[in-house]
Design brief:
4-stranded antiparallel sheet; single chain; 2 domains; Arc Repressor Mutant, subunit A
C-alpha cells in the first residue's frame, strides 16, 4: 500500500516509516498539517495516518478537509490524547479508526489491515511474477517448490520490485520508497542488496527473473 504518514515528532516519524517500509508499504511522510493535505491532494493513497496535534493545521482539520473534497481514503488518527471526547472528535471529523500513543507497532499494522479491508479495495496480498510468489501478509517468498528466506530489507526490496514487475525501477525510486534512512545516492548499498536478492531468487534456476539494467536500475519480470 501507499501510505501518507503525517507525524510532527521526527523520531516517531522515522520509526513508523521504517516499520511500514519493512512491511513492504510505500510511505509519503509529512511533518505539518498543510504538507499532509497537499500530499493527499497531489497523489492517491491507500490509507492515511494522521497525528492529531500537527503544527499549523491539526490532524482533525486535515481529516475534515480531505472528507470535504470527497476523498474516502481510510484514515487512522494517532494521538497522545486518551480522553473519550478526543476520540469522538476524530471519528466525527471523518476518521475510520483511532490509535492512542504509545502503541505497539503490530497493532498499528493490524488496524491498517482492518480499515483497508472495510474499504473493500485492498492491495493484493500475494504478488506473483512467473513462478515466484511474494506473500505480503505472511512475509514469505516461494519460487516453484522452494521457500526463499529473506531479511526484512530484502523482502521490502523484492515486494516493491514485484509490485512494479515488468518495468525498470531506478535506484532513486528505491531510495525513496524502500530505504527510509536515505543513504548517499552514490552508495552501493542498493547494489549489494540487489546482488544478494538475485542470488537467492535465480541461483540454480533455468530462467532468471531478476535483471540489473546497467546505469538505470533493476527489473523483475517473467520472460514471455
Amino acid at each position: 500500500m501507499r501510505i501518507l504518514l503525517a507525524e510532527d515528532d521526527p523520531h516517531l516519524l522515522t520509526s513508523i516509516a521504517r516499520g511500514l517500509r519493512e512491511a513492504s508499504h510505500e510511505v509519503d511522510p509529512a511533518v505539518t498539517g498543510r504538507e499532509a493535505l497537499a500530499l493527499a491532494e497531489a497523489r492517491a493513497h491507500d490509507v492515511i495516518i494522521l497525528d492529531v496535534l500537527l503544527p499549523g493545521m491539526t490532524g482533525l482539520a486535515v481529516c475534515e478537509a480531505i472528507r470535504q473534497r470527497g476523498n474516502r481514503v481510510p484514515i487512522l488518527m494517532l494521538t497522545a490524547l486518551d480522553a473519550v471526547e478526543h476520540r469522538i472528535a476524530g471519528l466525527d471529523a471523518g476518521a475510520d479508526d483511532y490509535l492512542t500513543k504509545p502503541f505497539d507497532f503490530g497493532e498499528l499494522l493490524a488496524r491498517l489491515r482492518a480499515i483497508t479491508r472495510r474499504q473493500g479495495d485492498r492491495a493484493p496480498s500475494r504478488l506473483v511474477v512467473g513462478d515466484l510468489v511474494v506473500d505480503q501478509e505472511r512475509h514469505t517468498v516461494r519460487r516453484g517448490d522452494r521457500d526463499i528466506p529473506l531479511t526484512a530489507r530484502e523482502f521490502a526490496l523484492l515486494a516493491y520490485l514485484a509490485a512494479h514487475a515488468g518495468r525498470v525501477v531506478s535506484r532513486a525510486e528505491l531510495l525513496e520508497h524502500v530505504w527510509d534512512d536515505h543513504p548517499d545516492r552514490y552508495s552501493n548499498i542498493i547494489d549489494v542488496y540487489a546482488s544478494r536478492l538475485r542470488r537467492k531468487l535465480d541461483e540454480g534456476e533455468t530462467v532468471a527473473l531478476f535483471t540489473t539494467v546497467r546505469g538505470v536500475g533493476f527489473l523483475l519480470e517473467a520472460p514471455a
